[in-house]
Design brief:
Elements: H1 2-9, H2 14-27, E1 31-33, E2 46-51, E3 55-61, E4 69-76, E5 81-91, E6 96-103, E7 116-126, E8 129-136, E9 168-170, H3 177-184, E10 192-201, E11 206-208, E12 214-217, H4 220-234, E13 241-248, H5 265-276, H6 281-286, E14 288-293, E15 296-297, E16 319-322, H7 333-345, E17 350-353, H8 366-370, E18 376-381, E19 383-385, E20 392-395, H9 396-411, E21 414-417, E22 420-423
Parallel strand pairs: 1-2, 4-13, 4-14, 14-18, 15-19, 16-17
Antiparallel strand pairs: 2-3, 3-13, 5-6, 5-10, 6-9, 7-8, 7-10, 11-12, 12-20, 16-18, 19-20, 21-22
């Protein structure tokens, strides 16, 4: 649990999250591949590839592969946030503010009256080359002040993003973030050519409650799936498998990007790997399984009426298997049965999650990825509170359950034969 808190604190946005995942893989002997170069893939090898610096796919490849199984987990590393516009400065009443736009669907009221950091990537021109550089201001950068009720405050849920969510930076009306960035990277102002910068909650993740049974942080949705599945993947091999770990960007905005789940990133790289191994990709996929990993809503202590009458997971009672009759999640009878059998065999606790029948609920990336390469798939995740808030909460014990489930999944082998299925 200390490791996941450190990871959450060190990963305020997608670029730093992928950088930290990449470092974990390099430390375990994984070799980085580059899409601009040819791949030298060997049985028994360990590899990863990134795209845009914000999505990553890793592979560990068995040595036998006579009847290979494709075992894959997929999560996302982006979170709802406030993102800076290309011209980020806005002059306010005797002050300078940031001009920001909503990324995804954040809970707007959660962003007020707390210190915010600034992090992401900056495109810097040096020696006639444009280079992507990670950036973090390193201390509280700005704050969004609320309007006091004495002054006719806007009321809960009434925030206007263009008016109410422009953060205060300084009373110095000559301040310019571009000059700040140029000074940081030791270049001229004109050499800062672009950026993808996000605001994030500056307060760190922490444990709380009796026996530290809860943890709270920014970005629990979905880094609290991305990190445990990485831990399950990184040291787990099965010589009859091609094991794959995916961490995608842009799930919160529909996955419509060159690096999102609705791109060719997964299919193209799996095709290059299987071609190098002389394995037919579509046959491999037919004997493959995906764990689509994204969190579900836990039973709310003050609003139990928001949950289904029976499919209502609680914190610290195990990971969740997510179901929707209209297939907003990928889970079906086959995938649920296979995954339940694996969890039962390994004594890993789990619960079921479904929305109330009169609430549509959200979706995730499993169906999107499956449209490009179709596998047996089940949607899972951690139960959590305050989803899409700037500061979210989950149960400490459930992280261990997801790590154990990921390890068991990657160690198992799927065998599909007509209407018979085994995951063991």
């Amino acid at each position: 649990m200390n490791d996941i808190i450190e990871f959450l604190n060190a990963s305020p946005e997608c670029f730093s999250a992928i950088g930290n995942i990449k470092n974990e893989l390099l430390a375990k002997g994984y070799e980085e591949l580059f899409e601009t170069s040819s791949y030298n893939i060997q049985r028994g090898g360990k590899y990863f590839v990134t795209r845009n610096g914000s999505s990553l796919i890793a592979f560990n490849i068995g040595k036998r592969l006579d009847n290979p199984s494709l075992q894959m987990t997929a999560s996302h590393v982006d979170s709802p946030a406030l993102k800076l516009k290309p011209l980020p400065m806005a002059k306010g009443a005797d002050c300078m503010k940031l001009n920001v736009e909503l990324y995804g669907g954040p809970v707007l009221d959660s962003w007020f009256d707390r210190p915010l950091g600034l992090s992401g990537r900056v495109m810097v021109k040096k020696d006639q080359r444009i280079k992507s550089e990670l950036y973090d201001y390193g201390k509280p950068y700005c704050l969004i002040p609320s309007v006091a009720p004495h002054l006719g405050g806007r009321g809960e849920g009434k925030a206007n993003p263009q008016i109410d969510l422009q953060p205060l930076i300084t009373m110095d009306t000559d301040y310019d973030l571009i000059k700040e960035l140029a000074k940081h990277f030791a270049v001229n102002d004109c050499d800062i050519l672009g950026f993808d910068l996000f605001l994030y909650p500056y307060e760190k993740g922490l444990y709380w409650g009796q026996n530290d049974e809860f943890f709270s942080s920014g970005h629990i949705d979905d880094l609290a799936c991305a990190y445990p599945t990485l831990m399950g993947f990184i040291d787990t091999f099965n010589d009859d498998n091609i094991n794959v770990y995916c961490a995608f960007d842009n799930e919160e905005t529909g996955s419509l990007s060159k690096q999102g789940a609705d791109s060719d990133f997964l299919y193209a790289n799996l095709k290059r790997v299987t071609d190098a191994l002389d394995i037919e990709l579509l046959a491999l996929a037919a004997n493959g399984m995906l764990l689509s990993c994204d969190n579900g809503h836990a039973l709310h202590p003050n609003h139990p009426e928001k949950s289904d009458a029976s499919n209502r997971p609680s914190l610290n009672k195990g990971l969740v298997i997510k179901f929707n009759a209209n297939l907003h999640y990928t889970s079906d009878g086959i995938s649920i049965a296979l995954f339940r059998s694996l969890l039962d065999d390994n004594k890993i606790p789990y619960q079921f999650y479904a929305n109330r029948s009169d609430i549509r609920g959200g979706g995730t990336l499993g169906n999107i990825a499956n449209a490009h390469l179709s596998l047996i798939s089940v949607d899972i995740g951690l139960p959590q509170l305050s989803m899409h808030s700037i500061y979210e909460t989950a149960g400490s014990k459930d992280v261990d359950a997801l790590i154990a489930a990921s390890r068991a999944f990657y160690a198992a082998h799927l065998c599909v034969a007509n209407d018979s299925f085994v995951l063991k």
